[in-house]
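Continued from yesterday's entry.
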Amino acid sequence: MPRSKRKRGGFPWPFKKKSKIILNYADKFHDSTSFGTQEWLAIENIILHPYQKQFLLPVDLDPCQSINEDCESNSTCIKYENSNGETKCVTKDRIQKFEVGTTIVGKNKQKYKIVSSNRLKWLNTFDIAWYYRLLSESTNHTYILFNSGRVIEHKQLSYIYNGLLKSLIQEILQETSEQKIILCGHSMGCVLSLYTGMMIQNENKIFFDSKIVIVGSAPFRFLEKNTTFKNLPNVKVFCFYERQSELSTVIDCYRFQPRASTDITYEPLTYITQDKQTLESSITYEDEFNKDTIGFFTDDCDNKHAWSNYFEVLTKLYPFDVNQGGRRKIHTKKKRKKN
């Protein structure tokens, strides 16, 4: 078989040959989506919980956390399970519910008020999709967080649009403030963000271009091959990979899901990794991969899909500065003066 048509793991390499993309550090991070990415990272964890589950208010010191056994023997303490399934002893007053009107504190120590929320059940059996609409008290930007969950096909996507997104889009289009609306999420949440943005663009392109920002990570394929929804300046989508050796690169498997689909994912994806030595080189592009070194559809690449991988790398690229309003300026390389 000719080298250009070689298959790996029984699946054809899906990327087309592109010309080499060379961008400096400033080009990669200083764009119209940077502020949205920083705040999204601070609040994404709340949508990882099941719909309207309890959350934990942050504190500097919780006396109950020093109790290892018999947590509930103390009347002020209770066991709390986080989104990772980890259990710890906390003070009862710290546990709150995700309800409209509730103010939460993000990982950047900034406050966000839950303005609205809604959910959709799949054939009245289980929650398939939901969102929280939050208002940032520090920036007045609106953040709409969509849940992650499963790889969905067009039938389910249409179901979610008619049952949940259609009414949300009409609400968004009636927004008259000058502040931005950021659609965001991980995995399925990223796809719902992109799909919602695409439908808004179809209805009102001027509104989409001026008010909407989309940030997210780890989407699967849902766009038709002839789509024009790509290469947009107000959209930033990340995909995690790991270069294990010179002969082995592993990419988040969900990049290629659903397997039998002829659809494509949003382009371009911004590939991030944590196996580089410097931040300046921690980002790359599709054409920089050697197609004969890619591994996918394995347990290893499936593990790359975890939000914890994305959070660890992205918070280094877009770090919080809790002493300066929750956001830190992203430093760039200074250009050398020409003699």
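--- second protein ---
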Amino acid sequence: MTMPKAAKAPRKNVAAVEASVKAIRSIIKAGAPHAATDIQYQLAKVKAMDVPGIKQVLTDLGVYPADVTMGGRWRADATKAERLKALRYAMHQQTVRPNLEARDDDDMPSPVVEIPAPLFNRKPKPEAPEGVENAFDAIRNALKDKLTSHEIAEIAEAVALKVCVEKMANFEAPEYARPITVQRPDVPDYEAGCQHENFGELLGFLVDRKHVWAWGPAATGKTRAAEEAAKALKMEFYPYSVGPGTMPSDFVGFISPGTGLYQETIFRKAFEHGGLFLLDEADTGSSAVMTKFNAALSNKYMAFPDRIVHMHEDFVCMAAANTQGQGQSREYSGRIQLDGATLDRFVFQQWCYDAALERTVFHVKTWCGLVQEIRRACEALGIKAIVSMRATQNGSDLMIGASKLTTRRALECCVYKSMDAATCVRIETWITDNNNSGKQWDDRFRAIAPEVEKITAK
């Protein structure tokens, strides 16, 4: 008797699950204050991907598709890498509970090694350290002759990740952002108001005079944060936006043919006299322009048309971009790949949407919540659309302002924009099927109009 061959799980689903696991691991290592929310979001993405049945997934990863709820064995030709990959994936599947009982199926290939039952059948421990240590012992004792110590350590890391996810899922991100007061011994306190959660770290970078590459989606508050940081640090602020037509002379200046005098630029002012220079849309400028910064940012001097100028001790540069300088994406097709030597001059800081700040600064809270749900739906469904904080701001302003837009019209003008009708239906269906607060799409939609009326009546 020959068992029918199970259909392979689409590689894109397996890769997507692995990508979410890597994202969760990096979130935990970063220890950001919004880690719990980001982890829950990554898990929601996995849930929304409709990954095929566990048998198909394990078959694709190198595990024989036996009755995985009663017992499971490796394929005879499964490599060590496939076994490791399957184990790490199975760590996160609650349905996988194989045991060590022998099987008498003659038609089944002889296994290389059985999956250790104690690893999966053990009940969760109340404390994370005990759960991690016990799981590590189970792996070490069962597989010490089959896997290297490095591979065992990687499996133990996967178990630790699972425990951390369970623990951090109990924490909730703050609902609203709190005002920030910047205190320094040499200057008066500065009331910065409500700022992005990265603002404090950005201030630290700038105080240490480290040039910052702030990258993230559109309208996350990068440019505004640069201006507020300059105010908080009592520095002159010099913003400049670059684009495909920007020339090197826009930064270094030039000698006027008519007068023979040097024409100064704002970059020259900041570089020579000190201040925060914002290089906005930095990933749209040409490599020829950006490489001009190499000597200026690293060697602390620069050759201008009139003379060589040494960098002022209070000069610092912040670049705001939508990418990491590695080239265009589907959403940001006008971005270019920049020279690695230029990027090496910066410390990188990722700017994501700060949900607490978004809820704080915009008037219509129910509208803000709906836009955030649409943003999550687009991410989970793989819809390449930008649902930024500008959508929240524009929709809120147009509903309570002179335009008096209805909720549906605000969605069409500020959020959906060029999306087709089928895509909009997919988004609204996903929100209904994946709501965490018990509010379906219709409930969220209908709650906006009464709040708008209440605000406009004041």
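The first helix runs from residue 11 to 30. Residues 179-350 form a domain with the Rossmann fold fold (CATH 3.40.50.300). Will compare against the first tomorrow.
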